[in-house]
Design a protein that fits this description.
20% strand; 5 helices; 8 strands; four-stranded antiparallel sheet; alpha+beta
Length: 166
């Protein structure tokens, strides 16, 4: 399981019919509404040939809402690492909740404070016990992720959006 930090969701500006292949997304024609995209959805989706698809015959098209700001940055962390980061940011919930949101300016400040006050992350060595594997955490991981989250928060602030995670 993982937690993704990104900009708070806002209504889509348009919709495309595509698979997840980047070239197929880029080649897809936008539709102004979901209903228009639904009306254009292929009758036989498993037989649809999507321009730019890297895996023709294997990809399945679906309707994707486009964010008005274009590509929205995101930072994805394993649950255990997300708990550590949220703790450093002072956002760890009492019940270990890994979902929430806050104003971008608040998140920016928390990132700066955590970067200034948290001791250098010495990392955690990997551990294997039978079939259980914990891949550990490399040296400097916390600071690197806090820097990425700071950049995400700056983008969100410039867009007038909150930072959310789930």
């Amino acid at each position: 399981m993982s937690v993704t930090f990104t900009a708070a969701h806002i209504p889509s500006s348009a919709f495309i019919i595509s698979c997840c292949c980047p070239a197929a997304k880029a080649a897809a024609s936008p539709h102004a509404t979901y209903d228009a995209a639904r009306a254009a959805y292929p009758d036989e989706p498993f037989l649809a040939e999507l321009p730019g698809c890297e895996y023709p015959g294997r990809c399945h098209p679906f309707i994707i809402g486009l964010d008005p700001a274009g590509d929205v940055p995101e930072v994805n962390l394993a649950n255990s690492n997300a708990r550590r980061v949220l703790d450093a940011l002072g956002l760890a919930g009492e019940l270990g909740d890994l979902a929430g949101s806050t104003a971008a300016e608040d998140f920016l400040g928390r990132c700066l404070i955590a970067l200034a006050l948290e001791p250098a992350d010495e990392g955690v060595p990997p551990v294997q016990d039978g079939s259980f594997v914990d891949c550990g955490r490399p040296v400097g991981y916390l600071q690197a992720r806090l820097s990425e989250l700071h950049a995400l928060a700056a983008w969100c602030a410039a867009q007038g959006r909150s930072v959310s995670w789930a």
